[in-house]
Amino acid sequence: MKRNLIHLLLFIITIITTTFSGAEWMFGNIFFFSNAPLDYDNFLAGFYFSIPFLSILTAHEFGHYFTAKYYKLKVTLPYYIPMWFLGFGPSIGTMGAFIQIKSPLHTRKQFFDVGIAGPLAGFILAIGVIFYGFTHLPSPEQIFEIHPEYAQYGLDYADYVYEDMPEGSIVMGTNLLFEFFKEFVVEDPSLIPNEYEIMHSPLLLAGFLACFFTALNLIPIGQLDGGHILYGLIGPRLHRWVSPALFILFIFFGGLGLFSAQDFHVDWSHNLEMTLIYLVYLYFTFSKITKDPKSIALIAVSVYTAQFLFKSMVPTVEGYTGWLVFGFLIGRFLGVYHPPAIYEQPIGWKRKVIGWLSLIIFVISFSPTPFIIK
Predict the structure, then answer these.
(1) Over the stretch 343-360, which tens digit does the pLDDT of each residue have?
(2) N or C end of the chain: which has fewer CB within 10 A?
(3) Bridge partners (DSSP) listed for residue 373
(4) How far are the Cα atoms of 28, 156, 191, 199 from residue 162, in angstroms, in the given order?
(5) How would you label 265-292 residue by residue, b for 16+ Cβ within 10 Å and e otherwise?
(6) Is the pTM of this model over 0.90?
């Protein structure tokens, strides 16, 4: 009973914090420490973000939960993690949610089913939210209610206001799913919000974040949901090779945004220091791929060298340094490898079809640069 109250309390707090955050994204102000703080009506409007977003998150977690229950595993209800910075910095009101499975999983089929159920359940609901958001777009003039200073430029405001955006402004990225809806679902393209303003559309913000977290979970590495799915698809032997290879590629892409060959011609001493720090990061991030320190160092130096050469040849590819943080969590804590199942029988062709479909969902939901800070 006590534990259920903890789950309920965390859920209620998370509803409140996501509603606060949603209102701040929608109206561009904050509830505290502002010349024009948001009020109670603004808070109520924040439910247009928090309800669809938490519904998707809840569907994801209960997808895992009910599948675990189906296999008679001992599992907890979801723990929601509230997070809000009181307006001191951007947040979405939560760090997500998780369940704890306290029973061992014995078969590849169990790993696969429990792993895939969450992303599929959340993605199905996210599709509905995104569809409704793109088919019920407000008029372009609504932006003047949030940014009255744009009104002097009329609907051509984008040609004037974004060149002088304050430092730290956030631009939402995109993904293949959003591009599909923009191209084939939206009847009037003039209604599509500018990339700088999409966070003011609560349903699109909720849908984009749902895609972001779905893709994050479906990364086919280690013990992420995508790692469980990949393990079920290809088995333990191949997984021990494919998972670390994908992890190295993931870090490779993330680190491309850190430097360019031209930087070394400007300030060698500064960049030499940053290079050493980055190499230390790479060493610790890759430290659990193998137990041999020399091999770890070789992987770190090889990745750095490959990034440097690639950036020299293709300087326009930016990468996304935010992935380095998540990569460190995978490498040091979540794990690159998958624990072996006690019984390694194949999962069957029907599950394989669903598994490869989930990897397609990963591709269309994944945003290479989800949040760009100008």
Answers:
(1) 888 899 999 999 999 999
(2) N
(3) 170
(4) 15, 11, 18, 15
(5) eeeeeebeeebeebeebbeebbbbbeee
(6) yes
CA distance 296 to 128: 45
**pLDDT tens, residue by residue, 69-123:** 999 999 999 999 999 887 666 789 999 999 999 999 999 999 999 999 999 999 9
Count of helix runs (H) and strand runs (E) in the chain? 13, 4
Question: Three-state secondary structure along 44-98?
Answer: HHCHHHHHHHHHHHHHHHHHHHHHHHHCCCCECCCEEEECCCCCCCCCCCEEEEE
**What does 199-265 look like in DSSP terms, one character per residue?**
GGSHHHHHHHHHHHHHHHHH--STTSHHHHHHHHHHHHHHHHHHHHHHHHHHHHHHHTTS--GGGGG
Q: How far apart are CA 242 and CA 238, in angstroms?
A: 6
* Torsion, Cα of 250, 251, 255, 257 (10° steps): 20
Determine the Cα–Cα distance for residues 218 and 353; give it in Å rounded to an integer.
Answer: 16
127 or 272, which is more confident? 127
Distance, first Cα to last Cα, the chain: 48
Each residue of 130-177: pLDDT tens digit? 999 999 999 989 898 888 888 988 888 888 888 777 666 778 899 999
Structure tokens at 159: 């040609």
